[in-house]
Amino acid sequence: MKITVAGEQKEVKEGLTIAELIEQENVENPQYVSVSVNDAFAKSGDFATYRLKNGDTVEFLYFMGGGR
Amino acid sequence: MAFSNEQLERYSRHIILKEIGVKGQKKLLNARVLIIGAGGLGAPAAMYLAAAGVGTIGIADADEVDLSNLQRQIIHATDDVGKPKVQSAQETMNKMNPDVTVNTYHEFVTSENILELIKDYDFIIDGTDNFPAKFLINDACVMAKKPFSHAGIIRFKGQLMTYVPGQGPCYRCVFKNPPPKDAVPTCKQAGVVGAMGGVIGSLQAMEAIKYITGVGELLTGSLLTFDAIRMNFHKVKLPKADGHCAVCGTEPTITKLIDYEQAECDGV
User: Fold this and answer.
1) pTM of the model
2) Cα–Cα dist B127/B7, whole Å
3) Interface of A with B in 22-61 (CB under 8 A)
4) Who contacts B6 (Cβ-Cβ below 8 Å, separation ≥6)?
5) CATH for B71
6) Where do the H-state alpha helices sit in B104-144?
7) Where are the domains of chain A?
8) % residues pLDDT > 70 (chain B)
9) What's the domain range around B96?
10) How far is B212 from chain A (nearest CA, A)?
């Protein structure tokens, strides 16, 4: 199936979970990433069971604390 | 207020823009912007806002200029090492543009003083380097109904979003709570390219100018991310303001400001 991750189209396996996608994408500090699917937040407790569907748009929102 | 000939010339590139014009330039001269943190983000933001003729600029920072700051904090120079950052920033802005009144706050921004600090300003710029300060600024601005620009930078990456009361999610809607101390690295621990502060801090100044003049679309409801390695900007549409948000929701559970513990190596 095809999904869009951070603006890029990707071919991924059918029924991929958010947790699997996080691993596949080598997300930094995965325990602190916020995830939105089709402009709605997914609960972090659901990442392991949340199965993505064909056409989903996924965004990773990272903590970025620097500035000075 | 009529413009002097000098002002007409100084701001001619603004005045010629149909979106700004004489009216917009007057709005800028009457505007009050507070910058919290006179560092990597705050330095370019302050300089562009001073150059733009934002009439009153407040700058808050408790630190003194350190040699390791000069790689990115372009408002300070080699001679300023050891000086309070707010003083060095004030001197630079005064030299750039005599139209600007600079108010300095040489102090840590805490739950005790932040509401008093932001009270008299129209727009706030978060140029801090740690999560406790970023959450404090968010919560205070939500409570005081003040618009602000949030930003963060690290290594070759940066991001920013704008909060305007009633017009989209706040920082806490997206990020909920600060990560545990030292769980997510700071610039001091991980490094940052100096120009990243220039890119993202300038975008924060741009948001302030657009808010003041009422031009265009702000980053309300979206987070703009920049990856310099891939040279890629990406605008992430954020989920709508969370009615259940602990601070901006309909039944907030956070009604008092919180001073979270911060990583040992930083300080605001």
Assistant:
1) 0.94
2) 29
3) 29, 31-32, 34, 36, 39-41, 59, 61
4) none
5) 3.40.50.720
6) 114-118, 131-143
7) 2-61
8) 97
9) 11-237
10) 23
